Description:
The protein is an all-alpha fold. The chain has two domains: about 10-155, no CATH class; about 160-294, no CATH class. The chain has ten helices and no strands. The chain has helices at about 15-50, 55-75, 80-100, 115-130, 140-145, 150-155, 160-215, 220-240, 240-260, 265-290.
Amino acid sequence: MSGIKITSSELPGLYQSADQASLDAQKNYFRGLKWYLLLLICAAFASYARPSDIIGALLSAGLFLITLGILIFLRVKRPDDVWYNGRAVAESVKTRSWRWMMRADPYEDCENIEIISKQFINDLKAILDQNKSLSHSLQSTDAVNEPISQVMKEVRALPVLERLAIYLDQRIQNQANWYWSKSRFNKRRAQQWFWVSVFLHASAIGMLLYKIKDPAFSLPVEVVATAAGAALTWLQAKKHNELNSAYALAAHEIVLIKGESTSVRSEQQLSEYVVNSEAAFSREHTQWVARKGD
């Protein structure tokens, strides 16, 4: 088996640039949402701690003003759009790259490899043209990387079975491991945030019941209720439950896909296998992108 290792740096510069743009936008989106929710809780606490104090009122108003600014930023800049569009471009480029390396449709063998290479580059241009809104977020430093690296050329030149072995190990198994890991991570996070939400709701109920017994006693019911709402909003934004189910299903499908490789012996069979595998990856990714509108 060939010792060739295909890392993200060996893929076209467009992949690296779109991938980084997506990761940065994702961080900015959740950072903004996190501060928005935390400051809402702080504003509610300031109002509770100093209910009849002008300083408390000004502090609360100032915090709400900041949260308004964050809300406007998220609405105007739309980092979530860059996050999803960047991921769509990156995954499309990765799929095309693996098809090219495996000599799969539409990049089968021909007399002149330059023809296939030009077709691949034109397909990358088409992907970029379909996502022009992402252009302002792409990293210029990654754009200088060659669209077809030397490692990609070396993989394409290998015999059928060696290419298949690389595809199974560095594409199929890599994806399966990624999906299993993400599924477990999101399952843990969903459980953690569920119990946080349960605790906060139970605390608010307990405080309200205690106020029935002693109406004069001051309790931060509004603060806890705001925190409970914030926890629920964060859980919905992270989509831990949905991602846990989707990633687990994708991982099972990939394992089944890997089992179909035993019959691959020829160029045509490898091409069909890669096309079917990449179509499965694309289906999962399409469903993932569709969740943006949920």
